[in-house]
Inverse folding.
RNA sequence: GCGCCCGUAGCUCAGUUGGACAGAGCGACGGACUUCUAAUCCGUUGGUCGGGGGUUCGAAUCCCUCCGGGCGCGCCA
């Protein structure tokens, strides 16, 4: 699938100019633009310039010309028309075109970042598309388990990303409060309340013991199973909300499955599907012909006992989301549910919404504790909840840990490592860069150094390789955000911000901001500000804080105070 | 058996949608604080990108196949 990335930011003037000149050169020399368009890449090696393009290699074959020859012709045309900031155009290797630009070009990037401020990295590519993003949606039968934390972090970050691309994003949580799971939960809770063991097919987790005690305190004696279910349900929902609040995630809608049944939405969806002639009766059940839409087999909608299946209810739910005016539906699911994707999509196709919902599948989290894997089943009993994690690490650490890697890879969340290494967790590394910038600003204020307006600031002193390196990364940032959004891959922002923090720490080491050179100081103060914006904007998308001050942590433990005179 | 995901340095993972000698962190080893917070920086060490074919000027990336691992394949949710 193609995911074209369109730049909408005003800034990278030099890059847009280069692309323009490149296209013009293609026309002049008589090469048609390849289907994939013209792309500028960042070479891995600095000797290959600031940007490079493989356009000549793509164009050569259809034109029946040797790649190097095509490249030379293009280079000649480009040199004649290139803006002054393009210092050098080289043909290299098999036929790459490498461009080297003047520092002034990078200074334009700095001005653009400062001008755009918090909007640097934001775009309007989605043009106000109304997107409903459903994530987490764990059953309201207990606290959120630790592995679910991945979907909390990923879902919230993805929502931020889509919004940053101009989407109108709605965070939604689906409460399965009408199914047999809740009944089993109620029965188990009642059993604990009556000091019995839960049924074999019930919920074995110890948390039910504590819940039962609170239920007794609130409701007293003589609680019925239905009362237990309802009390437990409400209590579980408030626990879920509380856990999510601790990590700073807020849903716009908590949708109750019961609503669908009460309003007759489930019956309505069955009627609609019947009218589409995609259902049939067999063995006393009603089936949906999902196999016609790529599912491996047909699926039951109404069981022989007359009750509807999860799929049937879920179809009604997704139909409701569309009826509420959401143009695009995205569901984030764990890979253990991937077998349901086709069925749901097939049903929605029959309901006239082909391609909906988009299901983002993420591989599961393996929680390790004491070197051993922890089973993540609330029903099995051995439970580690998200709240347990938040008891030992702060929300920023938790979030960034879940956002470190691609959701296509199974993640191992080792509680011992995350807590023990928390002082060298990547999140602190990145936040420390931000805090250092804030610290410089404080130092400047103390020294009476005022940052002059950027329009009056000469950025020419910024010529150090460290400085230009920061600006190169900042230039790239809007593309990173756009790609992360289209690929539904928030971890790309994490990767960028870690790399960017590393660049900043390197700069900080080699280039002093506050110096005796007033002009240099002014330029670097603005460079630092642009970096602060880059860090802050990226962390904001990830839902991670960007502190101005960070404590020294336990560093003092290494330095005996007694040593001081 | 079928479907989806994964296999990259000792470990945990990136890898700009096919580019130019494969990257980071941790680990190991060695350096750097009279100067904006050393939660930092610099250097050294370390890889048959699971194996084999194929497409291409060019493959970690695309196709086929095999091996290994995870998760699914209910009139459960």
């Amino acid at each position: 699938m193609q995911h074209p990335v369109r730049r909408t930011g005003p800034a990278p003037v030099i890059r847009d100019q280069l692309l323009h000149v490149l296209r013009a050169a293609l026309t002049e020399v008589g090469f048609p633009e390849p289907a994939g368009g013209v792309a500028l890449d960042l070479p891995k090696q600095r000797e290959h310039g600031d940007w490079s393009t493989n356009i000549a290699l793509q164009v050569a074959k259809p034109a029946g010309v040797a790649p190097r020859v095509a490249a030379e012709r293009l280079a000649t045309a480009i040199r004649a028309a290139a803006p002054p900031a393009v210092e050098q155009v080289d043909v290299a290797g098999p036929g790459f075109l490498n461009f080297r630009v003047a520092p002034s070009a990078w200074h334009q990037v700095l001005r653009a970042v400062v001008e755009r401020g918090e909007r640097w990295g934001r775009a309007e590519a989605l043009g106000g598309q109304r997107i409903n993003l459903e994530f987490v949606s764990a059953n309201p039968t207990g606290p959120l388990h630790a592995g679910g934390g991945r979907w909390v972090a990923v879902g919230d970050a993805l929502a931020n990303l889509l919004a940053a691309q101009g989407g109108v994003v709605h965070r939604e949580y689906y409460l399965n409060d009408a199914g047999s799971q809740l009944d089993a939960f109620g029965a188990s809770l009642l059993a604990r309340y009556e000091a019995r063991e839960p049924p074999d097919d019930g919920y074995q987790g110890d948390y039910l013991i504590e819940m039962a005690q609170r239920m007794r305190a609130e409701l007293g004696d003589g609680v019925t199973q239905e009362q237990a279910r309802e009390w437990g349900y409400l209590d579980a929902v408030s626990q879920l909300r509380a856990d999510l609040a601790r990590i700073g995630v807020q849903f716009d809608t908590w949708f109750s499955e019961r609503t669908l049944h009460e309003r007759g939405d489930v019956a309505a969806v069955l009627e609609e599907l019947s009218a589409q002639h995609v259902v049939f009766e067999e063995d006393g059940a009603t089936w949906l012909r999902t196999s016609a839409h790529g599912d491996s087999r047909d699926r039951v909608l109404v069981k022989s006992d007359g009750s509807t299946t999860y799929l049937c209810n879920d179809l009604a739910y997704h139909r409701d989301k569309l009826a509420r005016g959401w143009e695009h539906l995205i569901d984030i699911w764990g890979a253990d549910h991937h077998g349901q994707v086709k069925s749901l999509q097939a049903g929605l196709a029959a309901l006239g919404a082909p391609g909906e919902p988009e299901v983002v599948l993420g591989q599961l989290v393996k929680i390790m504790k004491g070197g051993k894997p922890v089973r993540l089943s609330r029903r099995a009993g051995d439970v580690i909840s998200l709240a347990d994690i938040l008891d030992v690490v702060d929300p920023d650490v938790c979030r960034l840990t879940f956002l470190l890697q691609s959701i296509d890879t199974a993640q191992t969340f080792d509680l011992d490592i995350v807590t023990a290494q928390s002082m060298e967790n990547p999140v602190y590394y990145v936040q420390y860069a931000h805090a250092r910038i804030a610290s410089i600003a404080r130092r400047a204020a103390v020294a009476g150094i005022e940052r002059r307006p950027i329009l009056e600031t000469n950025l020419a002193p910024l010529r150090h390789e460290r400085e230009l390196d920061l600006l190169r990364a900042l230039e790239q940032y809007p593309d990173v955000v756009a790609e992360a959004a289209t690929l539904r891959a928030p971890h790309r922002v994490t990767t960028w911000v870690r790399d960017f923090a590393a660049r900043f720490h390197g700069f900080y080491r080699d280039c002093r901001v506050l110096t005796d050179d007033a002009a240099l100081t002014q330029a670097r103060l603005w460079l630092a500000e642009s970096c602060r914006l880059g860090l802050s904007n990226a962390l904001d998308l990830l839902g991670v804080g960007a502190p101005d001050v960070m404590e020294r942590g336990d560093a003092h433990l290494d330095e005996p105070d007694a040593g001081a005179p």
In short: The CA atoms of residues 264 and 281 of chain A lie 21 Å apart. DSSP finds 19 helices and 14 strands in chain A. The longest strand of chain A covers residues 168-175. Residues 1-11, 554-565 of chain A have pLDDT under 50 and may be disordered.
